[in-house]
From TrEMBL:
Highest taxon listed in the record's lineage: Bacteria
Enzyme's top EC category: oxidoreductase
SUPFAM superfamilies: Bet v1-like (SSF55961), ISP domain (SSF50022)
Protein name: Anthranilate 1,2-dioxygenase large subunit
Keywords of the record: 2Fe-2S, Dioxygenase, Iron, Iron-sulfur, Metal-binding, Oxidoreductase
Listed Pfam families: Rieske, Ring_hydroxyl_A
UniProt-listed InterPro entries: Rieske_2Fe-2S (IPR017941), Rieske_2Fe-2S_sf (IPR036922), Ring_hydroxy_dOase_asu_C_dom (IPR015879), Rng_hydr_dOase-A (IPR001663)
EC identifiers of the protein: 1.14.12.1
UniProt cofactor(s): Fe cation
Residues annotated as domain Rieske: 68-176
Organism: Mycobacterium simulans
Amino acid sequence: MLALDRWLSADNISLMLSTDNRAELGRILTDIGCYLDDNPPALSLPPSAYTSPELWQLERERIFNRSWMLVAHVDQLAETGDYVAVSIAGERVMVVRGGDGELRAISPICRHRMMPLVETGAGRTDTLTCQYHMWRYGLDGRLRGAPHMAANKDFNPRDCRLPQFAVATWNGLVWVNLDADAEAIGAHLDLANDEFASYRLAEMVQVESWSHEWRANWKLASENGHENYHVLGLHRQTLEPLVPGGGDLDVRQYSPWALRIRVPFTFPLDVKSLQLNEVQKSNLSVLWTFPNSALAAAGERVVWFGFIPLSIDRVQVLGGVLTTPELAADSAATAQTAQFVTAMINDEDRLGLEGVQVGAGSRFAERGHLSPKEQPGMLAFYRNLAEALGGDQTGSG
């Protein structure tokens, strides 16, 4: 079980909770803690887990301040000054390619009067200039100019630098972590090399990308990716013919931070530019990294997702489609890829999850019994959630 008082004291967090709010949070954590049992309940999370402001605060501190987030592919950050900026649970982060060729993750908040230096999204810039008072920073985060500050004898411009975060790449995918001293993400993802090496991820190029905002709690988005049962309803015309919702999931847990889910195709894919075995041709293989990042390998195409939490009921859905250089140069294959994107990335999931978020606020909502078709993935996610909130995971991965 997760002890609320131990959680608060362990992280030295002082939350002004009313007696009722403390009791409600305690009930939520107790329910989540049950997923650590040898025989966890085959039930969904309590509805309040998607609406509780107190749980959201714990998630910000315990999960999002120390977890790796998948935010880009290196093709988006190829040139000096290319950047991707996101907001992780309210904390702005910018990943930028420096003049020395290195990727850096920095806080794009001016050290003078706290104005963001760039908007969230992607772009290219030579310097980071605050439009409030025109303070200017280099792509390494160091202060390059501060108008009319020489007379302030207490200010030393050499000591002024934008805070740095952890950044890492793995097979062309770019990750950030608000904990600058976080455990390397590659140590966990490398455990999947034996199953994903044949896809030549490091050689793949990005041919499509997107950024959407959904009105749903981040956990709903992660749950949705840990099961295929919902394809029966949400994707009857798009995905059901390819990856039926009635198929059995095969789940392999590599570590508390990384797991693989296999979903059987209706028929094996025809693959020409990769040397895949029959299992890989016959299954969608999804590599999940807790809490909210995934890549889904389907033959010669791989889709990556980053479900970045914005607020308690908002999530930014980042992603892209990767394929082999051979297919990227083939116009007919590019058209097929566009069709693949339409099937995989559309409004069906958004509409479904936004509906569930509304339902979670009902006074009459309750925990649902999980189908055997969704239990393997969902219970694995819930177990990792319980471990993260309980403080058993240290650093990140």
